[in-house]
């Protein structure tokens, strides 16, 4: 369906004139054509989210699952913007934060984690709003590459996507003098509850509109993807910040950008929403599979360790700590379990012999261990682009 979703405004400039897109307020007019296909996908997406959210009832430690899911999402969302970091690098930095100077890539991912964790907590005292988004952005760009790009402040100058200047850009968002009008309408839509669209479809529309407005000088894509999970959480669709679409967007990067552009050029929100719903279904299913496999892996390995006789008690304690710190050292495991260092080292040697963990340094001292199957399950799809 073709509709006018905004206007392309001619903007005079001392260099060369350019056209900037100014989106109309949401919801789209005329309304989305909710044919049988979209109705069916919406119902399937809601069911998939419900199943994923219910996974917390079968996991012994939901906090562990969230810990790694949040890190995976931060990594993937940053990779979409070109960050070349890996899960191993992130875990190493978090283990030795005080002794390691991180790369800018790792710092960006760490900032993303802080922003998401901040957002989840902040929702308890502040509704999803422009103030909320600014605070989120201030955390995201607090340090590293983006720290000079006005963290926590909406832009006061023109930005663009692609090209070397607005005149040859792939896309130019609203001029700064119209920015607050666009953002005010978006805030109103985020907080409205007229029942026309389900929260999942609203999340799709909010994400597309935010990316069209592009209100910051840097970090717009990452904030826009954070808003998906946080909006579903604020709407009560999920109890935990557990649904993340960055892996889906990463795997379908070209189509992701093309469909966002289609909402501007022809007002085609239907194809964008269909793509988004497919992503929700795929990522919810993947989340359920990952949680199930992590749980099965931990149980299988624990059962194996129980068969090792009198040493099984300390082995199980080390194994439980490895689930919290799957890339770690004997010293950290000793501190976590309160077992002696010789006892932890013996446990790790037995796990090495069983093929449960691997040693990463090849050194006799300051050795570092990796809980292979656990990390491999978590890091699926996180290889840098």
Helix content: 55-70%
Radius of gyration: 23 Å
Q: Could you tell me the strand content as a percent range? A: 5-15%
Number of helices: 15
Indicate the CATH topology of the largest domain: Fic-like fold
CATH superfamily of the largest domain: Fido-like domain
CATH class of the largest domain: Mainly Alpha
Q: Architecture of the largest domain in CATH?
A: Orthogonal Bundle
Biggest sheet descriptor? 3 strands, antiparallel
Overall tally of structural domains: 2
What class, by secondary structure content?
mainly alpha
Order of helices and strands: EEHHHHHHHHHHHHEHHEEH
The number of distinct β-strands equals: 5
Characterization of the model:
- There is one protein chain.
- The protein is mostly helical.
- The chain has 2 domains: 256 residues, Orthogonal Bundle (Fic-like fold), CATH 1.10.3290.10; 72 residues, Arc Repressor Mutant, subunit A.
- 57% of the residues lie in helices and 5% in strands.
- It contains 15 helices and 5 strands.
- A 3-stranded antiparallel β-sheet has the order 3-5-4. It has a two-stranded antiparallel ribbon with strand order 1-2.
- Helix 13 packs across helix 14.
- The longest helix is centred in the C-terminal third of the chain and has 38 residues.
- It starts with 5 loop residues before the first strand and ends in a 7-residue tail after the last helix.
Brief description of this entry?
The protein has helices at 36-53, 62-80, 87-95, 104-122, 130-140, 176-191, 199-213, 220-234, 246-251, 253-265, 269-306, 312-324, 330-337, 341-353, 372-378, and strands at residues 6-11, 18-23, 327-328, 357-359, 369-371. The chain is mainly alpha-helical and 385 residues long. The chain has a 3-stranded antiparallel β-sheet. Strands 1-2 form a two-stranded antiparallel ribbon.
């Amino acid at each position: 369906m073709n509709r006018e979703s905004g206007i392309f405004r001619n903007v005079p400039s001392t260099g060369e004139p350019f056209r900037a897109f100014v989106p109309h307020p949401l919801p789209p007019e005329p309304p989305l054509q909710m044919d049988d296909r979209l109705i069916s996908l919406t119902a399937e997406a809601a069911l998939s989210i419900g199943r994923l959210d219910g996974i917390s009832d079968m996991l012994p430690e939901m906090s562990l699952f969230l810990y790694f899911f949040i890190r995976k999402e931060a990594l993937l969302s940053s990779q979409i913007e070109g960050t070349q970091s890996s899960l191993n690098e992130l875990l190493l930095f978090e283990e030795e934060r005080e002794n390691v100077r991180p790369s800018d890539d790792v710092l960006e991912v760490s900032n993303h984690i802080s922003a998401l964790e901040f957002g989840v907590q902040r929702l308890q005292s502040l509704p999803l709003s422009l103030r909320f988004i600014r605070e989120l952005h201030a955390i995201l760009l607090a340090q590293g590459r983006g720290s000079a790009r006005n963290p926590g402040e909406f832009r006061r100058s023109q930005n663009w996507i692609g090209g070397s200047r607005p005149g040859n850009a792939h896309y130019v968002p609203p001029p700064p003098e119209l920015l607050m009008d666009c953002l005010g309408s978006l805030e109103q839509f985020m907080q409205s509850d007229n029942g026309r669209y389900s929260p999942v479809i609203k999340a799709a529309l909010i994400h597309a509109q935010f990316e069209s407005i592009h209100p910051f000088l840097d970090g717009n894509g990452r904030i826009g993807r954070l808003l998906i999970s946080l909006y579903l959480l604020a709407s009560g669709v999920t109890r935990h910040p557990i649904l993340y679409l960055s892996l889906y967007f990463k795997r379908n990067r070209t189509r992701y950008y093309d469909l966002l552009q289609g909402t501007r050029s022809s007002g085609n929100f239907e194809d964008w929403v269909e793509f988004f719903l497919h992503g929700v279904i795929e990522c919810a299913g993947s989340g359920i599979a990952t949680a199930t496999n992590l749980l099965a892996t931990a149980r299988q390995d624990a059962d194996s360790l129980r068969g090792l006789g009198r040493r099984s008690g300390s082995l199980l304690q080390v194994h439980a700590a490895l689930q919290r710190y799957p890339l770690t050292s004997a010293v950290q495991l000793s501190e976590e379990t309160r077992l002696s260092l010789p006892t932890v080292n013996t446990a790790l040697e037995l796990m090495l012999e069983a093929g449960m963990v691997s040693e990463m340094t090849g050194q006799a001292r300051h050795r570092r261990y990796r809980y292979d199957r656990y990390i491999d399950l978590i890091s699926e799809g996180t290889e840098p682009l």
